[in-house]
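INTERNAL AUDIT FORM
Audit reference: QA-55
Scope: verify that the stored structure record matches its stored sequence.
Auditor: D.O.
Record contents follow.
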Amino acid sequence: MIHQALFLVDSSIYVFRGWQGLPADTRNRFGEPDNAVQGFTETLCQIIENHRPTMMLCAFDECFRKGIRNQLYPAYKADRPPAPQDLVPQFARCKQVAQALGIMTQGSDQVEADDIIGHFAGMASRQDLPVTIVTGDKDLAQFITENDLYWDYGRRGIATYDEVHKRFKIRPEQIPDWLALSGDKSDNIPGVPGVGPTTAARLLNKWNDLENLLANLGEVSMMRFRGAPRVSRLLYEHKSTIALARSLTGLINDDRLPQDLTTCERPPRDERLLFNALVDAGLMDDLAERTARRLADK
């Protein structure tokens, strides 16, 4: 059992995994597609049953490519296809299920789920409250401290700060700079041509951060790896690309987000009230009954 009090869930990933993992003909009590909802519900049940978090947040992506990043760079995520039509309405029901389970849900029309999680993780860090970030997205590892955990539920084991450092060859807080150098194809973020993840990690391990790296480009050419002079030149020629990418890879704030962690407190749920709320969200009676029995007073 993880003893961190606060769990921050990157919801969209687990909604998609539910949609991909359960049969397409799965239906709810209204005859609507329900595979994503049922898969997401099981993910939340597993977390609550096994780890009993006293505080929990499900962050949802709701800016739909109209947020701050797309204003800065219209090509951001532009090559991603839209969500399938049978999945789109299930996001709202997933949110409804999370709320029924006593979990705070949060979206924003300006920033992404990553930023919402980063916002709450930052508040927790300032209060010395350990968190577990539940996500399959490497970008979110930037928000963990030495007291926190990073968990790609269903795919990888729970990782500490040091284990994330070992996996990516850089410290978690260096991830935004790392992605600004090497780019991020999954988000269509440009990087420096010829500078891949390994070279970017080598540079940051030497110079610590982008500011120090760019202030020492002359010395980069003398580093002991093949092609160092060329990399030094490329960094100089693509300073503007690095600056643009860095504006996209780190935390972007939305001042309208809650400023108090008490909003994440998860109250005990009465079994009958929980059953009724899950039925309202579309779950079949038998599934709602089993779920309510599993999670009542937990």
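Auditor finding: record pair retrieved intact. The two ends are 14 Å apart (CA to CA).
Action required: none
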